[in-house]
Amino acid sequence: MLRKVFKKHYLASSENHFRMSQHRINTILSLAAVTLILAACSKNYSKDTPLPTTYNPSVIISSDNQILYAVDPATGKKNWQLSFSYLPNLSNGHYKPSPLLYNGSIYLVANNSDTLYKINSKTGAITQAITNSNNDSYSSIATPTADGNMIYLACLNGNIYALDTFGNLKWEYITGSSFESSPTVYKGQVYAATVGGHVYSLDKINGPDPISGLPTWDYPHDGTVPTGKFVSSVTVGDPYLYVGSISDSNMYCLYLTPHSDDLVDSSEYGQVRWTYKTNGLIYSSPAAYGGYCIFGSTDYYVYCLDTSIAPKDPVAPFFTPRVYWKFRTSSQILSSPLAYNQVIYIGSNDQNLYAINQINGSLKWMFQTSGLIKSSPAAYGSNIYIGSYDKNLYAVDSATGSVKWTVNTNGTIECSPVIDNFSAMFGFNSQISGIVD
């Protein structure tokens, strides 16, 4: 009997011991597996190798509170912001010019700063503060433009500067009259218009002629006193150049190159093809779109001129364009139009952003803000982006005019937004960017 009890106790004890041993083995194997997994992970991401940083596309804009903002185009969520208030020479900077986006960098100037700032578009970090090697000022209210790894500035001191993307000055041209509008680069030439009423064409590589010091051409020619006063940026619609005037209320159309039209007795560059007179001043930079010249005026109207049909004026020795349509807003127009998917988007001092059908000039929709709109629209995807004097940046559905999101910048907005989506050299600039597709 005692033997049976002992045997039963022994067997039970052995079974328990086996179970405990098996549990220990399972525990050890589990720990070993975890250790192997952690070791494998450590080969890819050691404590010395941080995870790769991801970046989102951005809508980039500044306001008069001296802050540059980058927000997500889809949500309006802030990606980064950069304050210039701590910089002595930009502490009172007024950012009328739109930012220029080029090759992953933002170039920004102000109207009372002698410095051109180069900024990383993904992080908002200043990478270079560029000053003039000749002690001139880069103060400007005009958006710079870029082409072929060169940056072109039209400044308040009346000079045009060409710099490489590292800030080295390549050439300059002195006009003697202030620039308040952006230069345009097209087919090897830089075009720019002055407040004094001149339009200049300069070689984009060399600037003025190295021997004569003269531009490729200058309108008006032969010392003629100009009648225009240009604060509108020039726009190219090959073979023509368009620019609006605030002195005589005319939209000017110039020939880019010599021509042989039987109706015009001239073979000069920069010759006037036609002028069209509005009843207000033209601050708005024109859009050249599908053979049409589209712009706004302080007479409350948006004009669409058909440049392909232009009968000869019986009085003046040049053509007059046909008005294809005109659309009346409720106040002066200082904003420049954006042509996008056969719709014209433009702001007005009546606080509205308008979407106008390009085909017939009918209203598609309008979106009301709480401040006048001098900013020009930018488009990206299905959204239109616009800044207002009510201190807000808006994303508006391009099809319906309904607001997607609003971001308050705590400062009035005059400049226009630019979109960085990392896939294009320039990103998406507004009409006044000086970039010609």
Which key features would you list for this structure?
4-stranded antiparallel beta sheet, 1 helix, mainly beta, disordered C terminus, single chain, 437 residues, disordered N terminus
Commentary on this structure:
This protein is globular. The chain has a four-stranded antiparallel beta sheet with strand order 3-2-1-32, with no helix packed on it. Strands 4-5-6-7 form a four-stranded antiparallel beta sheet, with no helix packed on it. The chain contains one helix and 32 strands. The chain is mainly beta. Helix content is 10%, strand content 35%.
What is the structure about, briefly put?
The chain is built from 1 helix and 32 strands. It is mainly beta. It is globular.
Strand-helix topology:
Blueprint: H1 2-44, E1 58-62, E2 67-71, E3 78-83, E4 100-102, E5 105-108, E6 116-120, E7 126-130, E8 145-147, E9 150-154, E10 159-164, E11 169-174, E12 184-186, E13 189-193, E14 199-203, E15 217-219, E16 235-237, E17 240-244, E18 250-255, E19 272-277, E20 287-289, E21 292-296, E22 301-306, E23 322-328, E24 338-340, E25 343-347, E26 352-357, E27 363-368, E28 378-380, E29 383-387, E30 392-397, E31 403-408, E32 418-420
